[in-house]
Structures
1.
Amino acid sequence: MRRELICTGAATPPRLAVRGVDLPHPDAGEVLVRVQASSVNPIDVKRAAGYGARLLGLKGAARFPLVLGNDVAGVVESIGAGVKRFAPGQRVYGLLGTGRAGGAHASHVVVPQDFLLPAPGDVDPTALAVLPYSFTTMWLALRSTGIRAGNARGARVLIHGANGGLGRLAMQVLQPWGSRVTAICAKGQRQGCLDLGAEVAVEHDPSCIPSLPTMYDVVLNFANWDDDGLLASRLHAQAMGQATTVHPLLANFDRLGWLSGAWASRRDQRRVRAIVASRAPKARYAWTIFKPDQEALAMLAEGVEARRLVLPVGITEPFDTAVAAFNHVSAGLPGRAVLLP
Ligand SMILES: NC(=O)c1ccc[n+]([C@@H]2O[C@H](COP(=O)([O-])OP(=O)(O)OC[C@H]3O[C@@H](n4cnc5c(N)ncnc54)[C@H](OP(=O)(O)O)[C@@H]3O)[C@@H](O)[C@H]2O)c1
């Protein structure tokens, strides 16, 4: 029997219930994982309230009751045909894409073997369960700006939302690459960002972005769409690029429907792209959308093996009190939220 945490309808706070269903079976190339820990990310809280229904509905990922969650850490229960890299009893962690099959908030999930990694023996499932989704999204954002290990030394990188999950992971990647990070962070979080290798850390307030110098090679916006244009104005003429994970794509479709939503998104993207181009004609500008990615998973595995990637956990809850974990995330309380089935 599989226990799954379901959202029964769009609501804030989320309307959650636990139900039992038949245990799924792994098909060829898939692995059945007994879940020890999964995380609640900001997207789960938003989807529980109905966010993204129109666009995610295209993938069959918006129909209630919904099983949310993209991160999984646990133990291999059984394997499908052709699975060579994993065996029953092995500890693993990894990712589920957002789709029809549902998410990771369950006692057992079927995961494509390509989205799974072997877990290092001494790293707790709770610590692993908070990494894959956030790291993958952060990696996609970094990659889309054009920065990489080979050109990052000395590059000046501005991170908005630096004390959040994506921001912390970006600093943990950029610090060993030798980049010079300016962190825009929440009140009281400056020292934490400096400890993670930021050269400069400033608390966010309405005047902080305009007062920064126009010297950045790369801008990462993990915090606030409304600041995207202002952030772009801090790029210098030879900058590499800017990426934002907080774009209004899904919200535009939810709010305005297919045609007007597409039109508004095109307009929003063009507006900031024009600012980027006016500052730095060769710079890239990208809206990041999470999806499982082999390169990101390989880099995650490397960082975890080296004990370089860590996100603090703020709350762990069993399914029966999962609403507390969702509330923790929606209140923006420090540390990630983990569910223990
Ligand atoms: N597009 C995608 O596929 C995708 C995938 C993953 C994540 N995301 C989004 O990317 C963002 C970052 O994710 P995360 O996991 O790092 O979130 P997180 O841990 O909640 O961190 C968010 C950070 O942004 C800051 N922030 C939020 N609202 C702000 C505002 N209005 N002005 C200034 N700073 C603000 C927060 O500061 P405070 O503590 O002061 O609020 C915090 O530092 C989230 O919005 C998430 O939903 C998108």
Note: The chain has two domains: 2-130+311-340, 133-287.
2.
Amino acid sequence: MTQLSRNRRDFLRAAAGLTLGSTLLPSRLFSRSGVPQKDRKVVVITFGGGARDQETFAPEGQENIPNLMRELIPQSSFFTQVVNRGILGHYVATASLATGVYETINNFASLPPQSPTVFEYFRRDLHRPASDAWVVAPSNGFNRIGESSHRSYGPGQGARVILPKHLLTAATKGTPDYEHLLRDNYETPFFAPEVAGNEFELEQLRTLLKLSVNDFKTHALTLSSPDELSVYIVRQLMRQAAPSLLWITMHDIDIAHAGAYSLYIDGIRRTDRLCLEVWKAIESEPEYAGKTTLFILPDFGRDSDEDAGGNGFQHHRTGDVMSRTTWMMALGPGVREGIVYDRPLDSTDLVPTIGSMMGFSAELSQGKPIQEFL
Ligand SMILES: [Zn+2]
């Protein structure tokens, strides 16, 4: 793990000009941001299906992530060693990121997280309405991610979840023109539950997102992938509802499971472009500009070529170092720019870190606030 992290650090220092950060000198980052805690917004982008260094940060991979390398990483604090010690399935891993606890729910079942989510902590401690916390998720299997089954929290206290595919299915009644935007969950066994209950209804397309069904359908035809559809919805949501806590999960890279290397690379390139698009939206929307921290992190990695138990880029089955050691970057007011940290973090540290920034307590999280941000 240390070697992987050092390599990643050295790639970034060489190519993106980052400076090595030190944990010995507390930087008091957010106290210097000048943004009152009550006005802060946080946007989180996670990728379901990380990518390996040889296709991203390593010299031979950097051409796939030009926007991260040239635009976003130089403005960010970058952590090279975020270790996921949990189950490597995308739904359960994303639930772990969102609760700060390694969840043990069945990855292929329609179940809420067992521990309180960041959305529940945020809303309860800060007395925020449901409209202030949203999740835009890639797969119909994520419809329960917004709130936990914990007895002290739970139904009605978490985030509202938009499943863009569900919205599109409702708007287009499943016409073949839209099939490329409706591919779901690339893992097996294939799982896509019928969604009922907490989903975003078509009526809300009109009233909340201010989109007519026809405009939505017409625009969707210009999009090339499910993640592009998600980012389109995210931009509409930012403009019309401006939630303070917005969580976006992307999934295009995970097409790697299908085994086509070129589609996996296309997914990486698209994700790279969409991350910059979200950051540009943050910088251009008055409700977000100058007061928003953006976190970007994969849920976990993929298998290495060396491990005999895996099949290279295609899957994340082995639980080896490559598939567990991922990274995280943060950018926004008060975050030191162009710094790389290689000390290990845990995937569960994200939620308490957001809590420290926004002023709520993630009391049941297993993680710790990242000191470099405090
Ligand atoms: Zn996967």
Note: The first strand starts at residue 19 and ends at 20.
